[in-house]
Task: structure prediction
Amino acid sequence: MRVRDLSISYGAEPVLEGVDIGVGEGQFVSLVGPSGSGKSSLLRAVIGLQKPLDGSIELDVPSTDIGILFQDDALLPWKTARENVALGLTFRGIKKDEALAQADFWLARLGLAGFENRFPRRLSGGQRKRVALAQVLALKPKLILMDEPFASLDAIVRARVIQDVVALVEREHISVLLVTHDLEEALWLSDTIYLLSQGPHAHITREYNVPIPRPRDLIRARKHPAFAPLYEKLWRDLSREVGAAPRLVASDADAA
Ligand SMILES: Nc1ncnc2c1ncn2[C@@H]1O[C@H](COP(=O)(O)OP(=O)(O)OP(=O)(O)O)[C@@H](O)[C@H]1O
Ligand SMILES: [Mg+2]
Result:
């Protein structure tokens, strides 16, 4: 996927200007930037929900091969976990029995064996997030777009879900564009991280290469010599964009 010279505005209000990003095959790319800079707008433009003012978006996969995971999961409350996952498959013409079998497979793969017949209200936030992820993965996307999908999870569940995503994406060779405000998450997951400047007229100010080898393991990734310096650099650069004085969080102490 490649976005070239993308500009977006809402009426007279400019948001993005001249944005260039690329997601190569099997690559994990994150987009970080200040709140309101236009990250979600960019994702919406990629899936055609937002008409750009200028620029181009090249998708090298058909739109049916694109999976989308937004911050709020869109599970249907009156359907069980397996029915929710099976729904997208039946929409694609797969017979109900087969769709349910595939749903069970993906739920099990995400550690939800035994939870197939639960309704969303009887699942925890992290479990619902996994169901939503199973929904996306069951459709075997080649490209996944995610908008802060892990933001509402507590630290432990979040780490587990992220580890699942890393493993699956690596195994299935899926390309991902992740929008996040969490720098640690971006470092854990990405090959490349783009930093978007403060809007209006937000553009990419920096691109970081994450040299941590794959397959990735979260604990080992944190201990990789490149992790802490990159985290610090990202923090400084993002702080500068937000206009705040650079300040480090306790993350480095956690990792020790
Ligand atoms: N539908 C809309 N109509 C008008 N303005 C909008 C609309 N959606 C977003 N905006 C404005 O566009 C700018 C970018 O919004 P966007 O949601 O893309 O930011 P973001 O980077 O995703 O922020 P956050 O990190 O808070 O999710 C903001 O100033 C926002 O107020
Ligand atoms: Mg957003």
